[in-house]
Amino acid sequence: IELVTRHGPGNDEELQHLVAVAALLAPALEKASRHVSVAQSAARYDVMFQGAADAILLVDMQARTIVLANPAAERLSGYTQVELAAIAPSRLIAPGRSGRASPTIGDVLAGKVAEYEGYLRTRSGYNVPVLLSTSVLSLKGSAHLLLVIRNNTEYLRETQRQAQQEKLSGMTRL
Questions:
Q1: What is the pLDDT of residues 47-100, one digit of tens each?
Q2: 5-14, 25-34, 37-46: lowest mean pLDDT where?
Q3: Pick from 163, 89, 92: which is nearest to 171 by CA?
Q4: Given this model, what pLDDT does residue 1 score?
Q5: In terms of Cα–Cα distance, which of 143, 159, 138, 145 is closest to 116?
Q6: How much is the CA Rg of the chain, to the nearest whole Å?
Q7: For residues 69 and 78, what is the distance between their CA atoms, to the nearest angstrom?
Q8: Residue partners of 125: CB distance under 8 A and separation at least 6
Q9: 3-state secondary structure the chain
Q10: What is the reported pTM?
Q11: Are residues 1 and 15 in contact, defined by beta-carbon separation less than 8 angstroms?
Q12: CA angle, 24 then 26 then 32, to 5°
């Protein structure tokens, strides 16, 4: 490396000083770069989590408590995030009533099923039909269950409407 100052080429002492300063700054610059990368990643996560149309709950599988809920979960359930944290997931989510055998909430919390039909019990006592997608995650060495909950009300209404139309069209053919 050739060092040029206002007075011409630098001496060895100046060069050694600059190398020492660079050696001291390199870890700080690398740490700052990692910090920026983590901050950008956190911002992207926050946008996705906060802006998701589907309700998202993060459940601590050992404590069986809700540790995180997005705004869509608050809107769908009628509970605040603080209130959701105080509710057992098994009180909030009920098994579905489909023709096939429904997994228990224990199965869901144990991560044994990936998709699940059920009901979300709202603050007002209404059971909203929902589709749940589950994923088991490790967070700080502890198992957590990520629940993505989609309101299924409109789909069920449309399915019922189509079934009624098919019955009516079958009756008119007689």
A1: 988 999 999 999 998 898 999 999 999 999 999 999 999 999 989 988 776 545
A2: 5-14
A3: 163
A4: 45
A5: 145
A6: 28
A7: 12
A8: none
A9: CCCEECCEECCHHHHHHHHHHHHHHHHHHHHHHHHHHHHHHHHHHHHHHHHCCCEEEEEECCCCEEEEECHHHHHHHCCCHHHHHCCCHHHHEEECCCCCCCCCHHHHHCCCCCEEEEEEECCCCCEEEEEEEEEEEEECCEEEEEEEEEECHHHHHHHHHHHHHHHHHHHHHC
A10: 0.68
A11: yes
A12: 115
**Tokens representing residue 134 in the block:** 């589950």
Count of residues in the chain: 174
Region of 95 (left: φ > 0; alpha: ψ -120 to 50; beta: rest) is beta
Residue with tokens 């610059």: 29
